[in-house]
């Protein structure tokens, strides 16, 4: 089930959507999943059409992300010195129902995301640690450093 | 923070919404929250406008629910023989941003929900057990038994 990805350690895995005329049920993460390690926090981030939330990286936290509403583009940049994919930039578009996946971003990778749908999209993150401002770094102008155009 | 509720053991607690012009951040549950016990599964249930998903109850699982998109009415019916609120029916309307809350439904309570918004709403459930068909009971016609009109 694990797809190849351009950035070492990043996992993208299709998630199940169970259709129902009243509204679908969307899986995300179970305690017995191979992708589960420990529970830190579940929270949501709305992304308005065209809006960009970038760039940040976590020093210790692993992100486990899905997009249950709307469509979002994620961009991941690897500048870990010892990484086999050092310098790589990975793009992935996710959303329900046709591109509903679990995206796992290990610590130390820079990432950001942009809303691509007509109305607000929703990013869910079931991270392995609870939010701690001490382990987050933000760099809004990383676009210039890596020449990335949203 | 714990509000009174009509059904014994049910908790409704306001959750934080951090506004941002690019899209809000919505808290749900952290490992250090008093409401957290253990992680079983996180999944989502879409609810189309007017659609009703009812009734079910869990024999062992506790539901920890929020509504990060749209508006949903939950109805909880208590027929636990030894409950101080035996016979009670509780209604609660939840949604982001003005009524964004955590709803905790202990096992053995019948519940259902209905979409109240113009477009599909999203129910998130961070339950203390992973889905197990053996511990779920469904009774679509409970409305007649308890005379509840959606």
Topology:
2 copies of one chain form a homodimer.
Chain A: E1 11-14, E2 17-18, E3 25-30, E4 41-47, E5 52-58, E6 63-69, E7 71-77, E8 89-95, E9 101-105, E10 110-115, E11 121-127, E12 136-138, H1 142-146
Antiparallel strand pairs in A: 1-9, 2-3, 4-11, 5-10, 5-12, 6-9, 6-11, 7-8, 7-10
Report on this model:
2 copies of one chain form a homodimer. The first copy, chain A, has 150 residues and is mainly beta. Chain A has a single domain (11-30, 41-146), classed as Sandwich (Jelly Rolls). Chain A has one helix at 142-146, and strands at residues 11-14, 17-18, 25-30, 41-47, 52-58, 63-69, 71-77, 89-95, 101-105, 110-115, 121-127, 136-138. A 5-stranded antiparallel sheet of chain A has the order 1-9-6-11-4, with no helix packed on it. In chain A, strands 8-7-10-5-12 form a 5-stranded antiparallel sheet. In chain A, strand 2 and strand 3 form a beta hairpin. The longest helix of chain A is centred in the C-terminal third of the chain and has 5 residues, at 142-146. In chain A, 41% of the residues are buried. The interface between A and B is large, with 39 and 39 residues.
**Biggest sheet details of chain A:** 5 strands, antiparallel
Rough shape of chain A? globular
Number of helices of chain A: 1
Helix-residue proportion of chain A? under 10%
CATH topology of chain A: Jelly Rolls
What is the compact description of this entry?
Two copies of one chain form a homodimer. Chain A has one helix spanning 142-146; strands at residues 11-14, 17-18, 25-30, 41-47, 52-58, 63-69, 71-77, 89-95, 101-105, 110-115, 121-127, 136-138. The first copy, chain A, has 150 residues and is mainly beta.
